């Protein structure tokens, strides 16, 4: 019986609290939001998306003038 109690006690006193502290510390770090590098990438993607959206609108306007029934195809 003592053979099992000693490892369980060591686990509960030392390992489990350290494990919980490290686990929740890593969770808190991962929930801090976007890094500056990620924010820069996001802004770059947003600007590219806006440019592509403008290009699509321009192409649709040209197609509407050249071939008004192109959407029906």
Q: Secondary structure elements and their pairing?
A:
Layout: H1 2-30, H2 36-66
What does this protein structure show overall?
This protein is an all-alpha fold. The chain folds into two domains: 1-32; 34-73. The chain has helices spanning 2-30, 36-66.
Whole-Å distance between the termini?
81 Å
Strand percent estimate: under 5%
Order of helices and strands: HH
| Number of distinct helices | 2
- Level of helix content? over 70%
The structural domain count equals 2
Give me the secondary-structure category. Answer: mainly alpha
Q: What Rg is obtained from the alpha carbons, in whole angstroms?
A: 29 Å
Mean residue pLDDT: 88
Output the keywords:
73 residues; mainly alpha; 2 helices
Question: How would you sum up this structure in a few lines?
Answer:
This protein is mainly alpha-helical and 73 residues long. The protein has helices spanning 2-30, 36-66. The model has no long low-confidence stretch (mean pLDDT 88).
């Amino acid at each position: 019986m003592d053979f099992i109690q000693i490892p369980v006690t060591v686990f509960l006193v030392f390992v489990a609290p350290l494990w919980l502290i490290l686990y929740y510390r890593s969770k808190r770090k991962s929930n801090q939001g976007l890094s500056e590098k990620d924010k820069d990438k996001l802004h770059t993607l947003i600007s590219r998306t806006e440019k592509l959206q403008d290009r699509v609108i321009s192409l649709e306007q040209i197609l509407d003038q050249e071939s008004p029934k192109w959407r029906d195809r």
